[in-house]
C-alpha cells in the first residue's frame, strides 16, 4: 500500500516515463499519477490530448510496478455504456 501511495502521489515529471508522456500529461493538466487515476475512463479518453499510445505507456509503467489495477474505474462509477 505504501508503494501504491508513493506512485500515486509522485509528480509525473519525476518518473521513469518518456519525455513525450510527460509533455502530453502536462498539456492535459495532469501533474500527479493520482490525478490521472481519478478521472473516469470515458472522460480521460475524451480529453483533447489523449492518445492510446499515451495510455499504453502509463499502463506499461503501472503494470511493471504491479499497480495496473489503479487504472480501473472506481467502484460505483460506470466505465462504459453498453448499447
Provide a quick synopsis of the model.
With 83 residues, the chain is mainly α. 47% of the residues lie in helices and 0% in strands.
Give a structural overview.
- It is a single chain.
- The chain has 83 residues and is mainly alpha-helical.
- The protein has a single domain, classed as 5' to 3' exonuclease, C-terminal subdomain (DNA polymerase, domain 1, Orthogonal Bundle), CATH 1.10.150.
- The chain is built from 5 helices and no strands.
- The longest helix has 13 residues.
- It starts with a helix and ends in a 19-residue tail after the last helix.
- 10% of the residues are buried.
N→C terminal distance = 37 Å
Pattern of helices and strands: HHHHH
- Helicity level: 40-55%
Specify the CATH class: Mainly Alpha
- How many separate domains? 1
CATH superfamily: 5' to 3' exonuclease, C-terminal subdomain
Strand content: under 5%
Overall shape: it is: globular
CATH architecture: Orthogonal Bundle
Secondary-structure class: mainly alpha
Characterize the largest beta sheet: strand count, sense, and whether it forms a barrel: none
Number of helices: 5
Low-confidence stretches: 76-83
**C-alpha-based Rg, rounded:** 13 Å
Rounded average pLDDT = 87
- Using the coordinates shown, work out and report the CATH topology: DNA polymerase, domain 1
What is the number of beta strands?
0
Amino acid at each position: 500500500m505504501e508503494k501504491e501511495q508513493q506512485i500515486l502521489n509522485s509528480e509525473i515529471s519525476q518518473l521513469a516515463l518518456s519525455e513525450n508522456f510527460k509533455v502530453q500529461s502536462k498539456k492535459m493538466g495532469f501533474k500527479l499519477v493520482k490525478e490521472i487515476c481519478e478521472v473516469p475512463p470515458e472522460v480521460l479518453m475524451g480529453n483533447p490530448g489523449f492518445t492510446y499510445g499515451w495510455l499504453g505507456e502509463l499502463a506499461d509503467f503501472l503494470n511493471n510496478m504491479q499497480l495496473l489495477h489503479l487504472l480501473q474505474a472506481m467502484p460505483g462509477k460506470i466505465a462504459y455504456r453498453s448499447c
